[in-house]
Specification:
By secondary structure, the protein is mainly alpha-helical. The protein contains five helices and no strands. 85% of the residues lie in helices and 0% in strands. The protein has one domain: Four Helix Bundle (Hemerythrin (Met), subunit A) (Up-down Bundle), CATH 1.20.120. It is elongated and about 50 Å long.
Length: 142
C-alpha cells in the first residue's frame, strides 16, 4: 500500500481539521460504547469492540500520522526551519499514541478488556485532541 506523501487535504487547514474531527468523533463514540459494554458486563462484546477501536486508531489516526510525518511535516520544516521544534513535538504526540495503542493491544491479548484499557482509550483521545489543536495552530503558518 502506498501512502500519499502530502496531498491537498493535508495542506488545507479546513479539510485537515475535518479529517481530525471525524476520526476523533468516531474514537469518542467507540469509547462511549466500550464504557456501556463494560458497565453492562458484556465482556465478549466489549473485547470485540475494543479490537475494532484499536483498528480504528491504527487505520484512521496512526496512518494519517504517518502520512503527515512522511510528507507534510518534512515540507513544513523545509519551508520554515523555525518550526522544527514544534514538528518534533507533534511527532512525539504520534509516538505517544502509537505507544498507547501498542499497550492496549498487549493488555487485550493478556487480560482482555477492563477499566484500565478503557482509561487508555480515553487517554488516546486526550492526546489526540491536544495534538490536533497544536497542529492546527501551526498549520496556518505553513
Amino acid at each position: 500500500m502506498s501512502i500519499r506523501v502530502s496531498g491537498p487535504g493535508l495542506k488545507s487547514v479546513d479539510s485537515h481539521a475535518a479529517i481530525h474531527e471525524a476520526a476523533l468523533n468516531e474514537a469518542k463514540e467507540l469509547n462511549h460504547i466500550l464504557g456501556r459494554l463494560l458497565k453492562d458486563n458484556q465482556k465478549e462484546k466489549a473485547l470485540e469492540t475494543a479490537y475494532i477501536a484499536v483498528e480504528h486508531w491504527e487505520t484512521r489516526t496512526l496512518r494519517h500520522a504517518e502520512a503527515e510525518e512522511n510528507g507534510l511535516y518534512k515540507e513544513m520544516i523545509e519551508e520554515n526551519p523555525d518550526l522544527k521544534d514544534e514538528i518534533v513535538a507533534l511527532t512525539r504526540d504520534h509516538d505517544t499514541m502509537r505507544y498507547l495503542v501498542k499497550e492496549i493491544k498487549h493488555s487485550l491479548e493478556m487480560d482482555g478488556f477492563d477499566e484500565e484499557v478503557l482509561q487508555q482509550f480515553h487517554a488516546l483521545v486526550h492526546v489526540d485532541m491536544y495534538h490536533n489543536l497544536e497542529e492546527e495552530r501551526i498549520l496556518p503558518h505553513h
